[in-house]
Every structure is written in structure tokens, then in C-alpha cells.
Amino acid sequence: MAMILMIETATEVCSVALASDGLLISLRETDKGNSHSANVAVFIDEVLKEAKKTPKDLDAVAVSKGPGSYTGLRIGVSSAKGLSYGLGIPIISIDTLEVMAFGVLKNQKTIQENCLLCPMIDARRMEVYSAFYDVNLKQIRDVRADIVDENSYLEYLEKHTVYFFGNGSQKCAAILTQHPNAHFIENVQLSAVNMIPLAEEKFKSKIFESSAYFEPFYLKDFIAAKSVVKGLY
Question: N or C: which end of the chain has fewer CB within 10 A?
Fold first, then answer.
């Protein structure tokens, strides 16, 4: 029986879940952005205490690897690596967009066999991180940073009904809804709960990352904003 801690910090959502043998036993999460650094350690402590467990009871730690917020990913992966190294347990990485797609498949019962899923994470301006999955969670197109316009995704929309969702899809809706095969699912947020079956599968297959060398999947290089403090150049 595997006891796995899940950490999800790739977007504005900070979510921590504890699962035993693939079943959720404790969860803490908030969608109040810019609070990951304050919440992750607290949430980890709370889910363990609620389940009457200690860190030594963990068999693995799973973390959402990206793409997503640079700062959020750094916090989540650093926390997971610290637990992995300190406790001598494996670290499991889960693709963030796959977690989103799995959550939609679990909660939306009307999606038909020939449809495609396109989770989107906001990458600022009119750019999104996205990928395409079928209803069996098979990746049809790899993860990319897309600049969205009226011609985006036509090769998929001409042949399939496509469901767009995630915090990046909101700014694309006005452009993409012009196509009859484009549909949008609102209020889809990331949650560590949806990492559980994906992490359990990797644990059973012993697909682990190096606690020393694993890094988040940023997709794009981080670009710091220019300081606007007077006197600094």
C-alpha cells in the first residue's frame, strides 16, 4: 500500500493532497494566488496531521512539473525535492496539462469518443501553454507555447469537437468560438486530487525522478521584469 503526497503549485492554485493506495485521505487547497510559499509547508503539515501520519509514513512525493508559473513551479518542486532527499523516498513528476485533462474527463460525463481536449494555462498576453489529448488521455499534440489567433488549431477543429479549458482559455474564447467545433468548459482549476491516479500508476511502474537533478518543465525561460524603482537601471 503506497502513501503518496501530491503537490500542485503550477498556477494560482496551491493544492496538497495525501493518498493511500490511490484513494484520497486528506486535502488542502486555495486559489488565492501569490500565496504558495506561505501555504505549501502548512498544507503538507495539515494533511499529514489530519490523516494521523508523519513524513516518515510517506512512500513517495508527487509534484506537478509544469508548464506553468515559474515561481509556483519552483516552490512546488523545491518542496518535493526536499522531502524526497530528506526522507529517502522517490519523487514522481506529473505533467500539469495532463492533470487538467484528467480532471475534465473525470467530471464531464458528456464528452464524446471523437472529441479532443485542450487544456490551456495562461502564459501572458495572447500566449498559452497547451497540448491536445484524446478521451483516453493519449497525447495527440505535444506541449507548446502558442500565440492564439483565429487560425489557431484549425487542423484539429476541422476534424474534431475540441474542448478548451483552464485559465488560459478564457482570453481565447472570443477568438476561437467563431468555429462551430470549439467548445469551452468554464471554472476548470488544477487540484492535487487529480494527480492521484497518475502518480499511483507511475509509482507502480517505478517511474521516478532524481531528487538531486530534477527541474520543473518551464517551457519558456523566465524573464524578470525591469525594475521601476527610481535610480535603478
Answer: C
Superfamily of structural domain 96-185:
ATPase, nucleotide binding domain (3.30.420.40)
Q: What is 3-95+190-205's CATH topology? A: Nucleotidyltransferase; domain 5 (3.30.420)
Q: What is the pTM of this model?
A: 0.91
Average pLDDT per consecutive 10 residues, the chain (233 residues; last block may be shorter): 95 97 97 89 98 98 96 96 97 98 93 95 91 97 94 95 95 90 94 98 97 90 43 37
Helix 36-50 and helix 70-87, axial crossing angle in degrees, nearest 10: 40
Is 132:118 a contact under the CB 8 Å cutoff?
yes
